[in-house]
Each structure stands twice: as C-alpha cells, then as structure tokens.
C-alpha cells in the first residue's frame, strides 16, 4: 500500500486510542503564527480573519468581491481547510487606501459559514505565501476509546521525542488520487497550471514519505546514520554529510538539528554512504521510479526536509470521559495529522 495511505508506520508503537476529529468545525481550531509585524502604513490593508466553514481560496474570493478588486490583489500566507475554525491574515491591495465598510464583509451567507474581521491595519507589501512562523492548533477528539494512562504516556512520549514528519493525507487527495494524477501528467497528460503545482507537490511528498516510512520501520528515523544530511531547527538550512561527533550527538539530542530525507528533483542526492543507499532502496520500483523521473524532467532541484517533528507547547486535558482536547504549535509546512497518527486511529468525520 502507498505510504500516502493512513497505514504509515508509527514510531512509538501500536495505537493507544481510536477517536473522531472534526465532528464539528469548532473541534479543529487553527491560528496562524505571523512571521512579521505590520508596518502600519502602505497600500495593503492587512486583515486578520476568523472563518468557519470556508476555505482560504473562497475567503480570498469573497474579500476581493468586497473590495472590488481582482483576486490577484489578495495575499495570504497559507491554505486553511474549510472544515475548521481558522484565523489567518489576508492582505488587500488598495492603492487609494480607501476600504469599504468592514461590516459588509462579515455578513453571513449561511448558518454554517462565518467570516469575522478580528483586526485590521495597513502594511507596505502584499502578504506572500509562506510568510508565517507556523500554526497553533486546539483540537478536540471525540468518542475516544482507549486506556487513559496509555494515552497520556503516548502524549508524553510525543512531547519528549517528537513524531515522524510525514506529509499529511491532504497532500494526496481523496484516496490518493493525486499520485495517479501525477503519474498521468508525467506520462503526457496536460494539466492546468494550478493542478500541475499540486501534483508535483504530491509526487515529492509521496517519495519523501516512502523514505521516512522505511526509516521509521527500521527504528532510526531520529538517529544518525553514516552519510546523514542535517537540518537546523527552525530553518531550512542544511549541512553535511560529515563524521558524527559528540557535538553533533548533543545537538541531535537537544533538537537543535534533525536528520533529513529527500525532496526529489534534479541532481545528485546530497546524502552519502548508508543514508544514500537506504534512500535509493526506498525509492526503487516502477512507481517511485516514474515519480522521480517526472520530477527531474519538470526541473525541480534536489532539496531536503526534516524527518523529525516535535510539537511545541503540547498540552492536553480531558473535557469528559470520551473527549480529549489537545493544544500545540507546529512550524509552517508540517501537519497536525502527523501528531494525531502517533496516537492511533483518528477518523476525520468531516472527510468521511
């Protein structure tokens, strides 16, 4: 089965719970952690929006209509799901610095959809994609089944050791359809520009998950192998391979550096020795070979991604005997589903 499926190996062992997530949007709260403070002046109105039942693209379209401008003039840092309550920033290019009444933007179109402006100010530049430090999550698991002591022990292990930094299922589409789409595109099928970007990302994510799954199964996803390439915590800067030393061991134990896996593209693998051999073996086979070749032909360059993810400020409390609230932060580009997967079988009620 493809590692895009929900059967990716867990680092901490078998499941300790079964539960439902997103039985209601309020059970999945996501708040962006901004990467910068607004300048307070400029031609871009910076809005902090709370939305329910609305995805980012739909919200951007509504804001553009409200402002009477094209959607290209709307900026946002990241994509947020519809089946959630989310707080994120949007920039609106208004060269004349004249904004329509904010109250008209907040009019509800249905009981299930809500858009509220929490804050507004001016800024000098359009909000670019990726301009966020990360996201803060407050999630409620419902109908929890499992031993409370075992669940809390697993949560303590997650807080101390982190989790495998898998790409989440949303990268792969319903039933992993994006991988089939990527293979068809690489075989010659023409795709729209926005589809092409999505499928290239899915192909890269699938290959990375295969490498990470192999290392999790072998028990060394968070350890040093010969030929390791390291990534600095809180950045995308990498270094190595270099001989393992006491200094590197201390930095690894302190979560200052992390082992990495490949984001496939043109060029030679940066890893060496045992790591390069493992990565080539994990990416052998017809499907992986086709994905690798397609990414190379598309012109993407070799990059690396951390194999390890540790949620920040992880806390939990029981709302009742079968409802567990989790709160934590994650850096940009990582997935709350990777944290939930280490606990057990968590079914997404909204997607089901």
Characteristic terms for this protein:
alpha+beta, Pseudouridine synthase, about 350 residues, four-stranded antiparallel sheet, about 30% helix, ten-stranded mixed sheet, about 30% strand, single chain, 9 helices
Please tell me the overall pLDDT: 94
Tell me the β content: 25-35%
Uncertain segments of ≥5 residues (pLDDT<50)? 1-6
CATH fold-type name of the largest domain = Pseudouridine synthase
Plain-language structure description:
- This protein has about 350 residues and is α+β, with helices and mostly antiparallel strands.
- The chain folds into three domains: about 1-30 and about 140-160 and about 310-350, Pseudouridine synthase (2-Layer Sandwich); about 35-130, TruD, catalytic domain (Pseudouridine synthase, 2-Layer Sandwich); about 165-310, TruD, insertion domain (Pseudouridine synthase), CATH 3.30.2340.10.
- Helix content is about 30%, strand content about 30%.
- It has nine helices and 16 strands.
- The strands form three sheets. Strands 1, 2, 3, 4, 5, 6, 7, 14, 15 and 16 form a ten-stranded mixed sheet that branches. Strands 10-9-11-12 form a four-stranded antiparallel sheet.
- Helix 4 packs across helix 5 and helix 5 (about 195-220) crosses helix 8.
- The longest helix is centred in the middle third of the chain and has 26 residues, at about 195-220.
- It is globular and about 60 Å long.
- Mean pLDDT is about 95; it is low at about 1-5.
